[in-house]
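ok trying this again, last paste got cut off
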Amino acid sequence: MPYMIETFDKAEAGDLRLRLRPAHLEYLEAQRHLLLACGAKLSDDGQAASGGLYLVAVESRAEAEAFIAADPFHQGDLFERVFVTRWRQAYLDRRNTLNEG
């Protein structure tokens, strides 16, 4: 079953986020086979990120925790909090997926 990982940046960590971003994006590209979706949580004006949301196709909490632990954002101490939760996919790309294999 997939997992949802929600991250919350430390306060005033915008510069750190920008410095770590290239390595973070490289990591995501290397792990794209696990990504159902992911992206930053943005301010209303779309100018500042304050964390992220990842939906990962892994089989266990341990795998989800290992995924986020290896992210350069996590390794660079960007996050104040990280929540890992099992997730049931119901809709994807505007399509009901509940009855799919």
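PB: full thing came through this time. The CA atoms of residues 69 and 75 lie 7 Å apart.
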